[in-house]
Hints:
The chain is of the alpha+beta class. It has helices at 2-10, 15-35, 39-75, 78-94, 101-110, 130-142, 186-202, 215-221, 224-235, 244-255, 260-267, 271-274, and strands at 119-125, 146-150, 153-158, 173-177, 207-209.
Amino acid sequence: xxxxxxxxxxxxxxxxxxxxxxxxxxxxxxxxxxxxxxxxxxxxxxxxxxxxxxxxxxxxxxxxxxxxxxxxxxxxxxxxxxxxxxxxxxxxxxxxxxxxxxxxxxxxxxxxxxxxxxxxxxxxxxxxxxxxxxxxxxxxxxxxxxxxxxxxxxxxxxxxxxxxxxxxxxxxxxxxxxxxxxxxxxxxxxxxxxxxxxxxxxxxxxxxxxxxxxxxxxxxxxxxxxxxxxxxxxxxxxxxxxxxxxxxxxxxxxxxxxxxxxxxxxxxxxxxxxx
Length: 275
């Protein structure tokens, strides 16, 4: 549990969120026990409920102690300190706050030049562990980027001359970058890149991607109402009746970029059956 907590801390997951998930899990477990019990058994179990929940509460006290210690230990690592400095400076630049002496010190410690223009980026390392993402962000900071771990993504800024060639040799990496920009519009650019990475990853893309490659998907993702209208138009005629298999097939085709070979593999069917 301690090692798992260290991974959560390295991935930037807030301590409160991790503890809340464990508490909800314990509550759900107890509710499930009650739900699986007969009416007569539930009445007898009610006599033990206070004691039972007390045991679960004691377990959660242990979880809290272990997670708190793990987060404190993780925070003492130089890599974690660099990650926090980068995240703080990034947030201040996006918010267009005045650059303070503390910001200048953070930038100096990170080896990052806070003078615009910046090239915002969002990267995703497929099937990576929190430790791998933390290491990749650390390598980027060593190379002069303002990089930090953001859940499953690595987000940050580089200067226009930053060399990605060595990092892009990892075949699992998905990288989205925007054009060089100043602080105005920086937050919007980063939000769009997060959306782009989400869309591109669902299409199983790797390497460097651009907004231009996914314009229709991004327009739909930015307009849920329009996306719902499109969904109803495509899938509407298939609702009702015995069309469940057609709906599943169409959805799988779309997920596999309408490639018949990968679709038949995903659906475990012969190509002629797909046709």
